[in-house]
Design brief:
Layout lengths: L16 E3 L11 E7 L8 E2 L4 E3 L8 E6 L1 E7 L10 E5 L15 E7 L7 E2 L11 E9 L1 H7 L22 H6 L14 E10 L2 E10 L7 E8 L7 E4 L10 E7 L9 E8 L2
Parallel strand pairs: 6-10
Antiparallel strand pairs: 1-4, 2-3, 2-5, 6-7, 8-9, 8-10, 11-12, 12-15, 13-14, 13-16
Length: 276
Amino acid sequence: GGEAPTDPNSPYTAGATVTVLNAGSLAKTGHTFTGWNTAADGTGTSYAPGETFSMPEVNVTLYAQWVANSYTVAFDSNGGAAPEPASKPATFGQPYGALAATSRNGYLFQGWFTAAEGGAQVTEATVVSTAEDHTLYAHWEPTPYQSWSDSVAWNPGDDTAPTGDPDGDGLANLIEYAFNLSPVESNAGVAVTTVSTRTVEVEGQTRTRATLTFTPRNTNGLRFIVESTSDLTAEWTQTDVTDQVQANVPFTFTDTVDLTGSGAKRFLRLRVVETP
């Protein structure tokens, strides 16, 4: 923007001394004036304001040269953990590049935005168009568990984390969410899973077929993993059945094993975790 300066001594005769003027009222958003050049792309001869040169026998045009400004971009986690890094430099007209990392318990990160609420999303590829130091704000979306937790009438001091058990019934809050139970009123004695066994013949061999059945009420944001072992001191085998589980539909996991040996046992259990 603005206007290029006008040399009051122009035109010049060949051999006359020309004094290069300053930028006048010229301005370019997000840029700083660095001088003049005989080529628009800066590949010619450069002159700073106040320099002189001898007028050649042809007309001379000088082109303004600019350098993009660098601005400080601060990151506001908007309720999340301290961002890393807390700020970074960004060059006007260039992509932002790598942005800060942050996290927030119970919430899913939605990205960085130009306002704490609303605003435009900024990604690594977004070109810097703000010609001043500025702040980007993290936006969050509550996880399904967090949305449920926000609707619960917790008692003061209750542990509202997914692993908490404020009613002391032995069922973690995440289990209470999955099976639509109250996390503040004891559900002691409520069986969220049932296990049964029966003897079957498999290819002429006697085997025990153990089943674990459960009916979740909420499945959003959850993974369902059936774990099995024949020795409580050994590592449990995990089977992720999430893709097969539906809300309000009974699901049965079947485990067929050889329990004919002396003292042979089989243990099944259900583990519920939040999706990453």
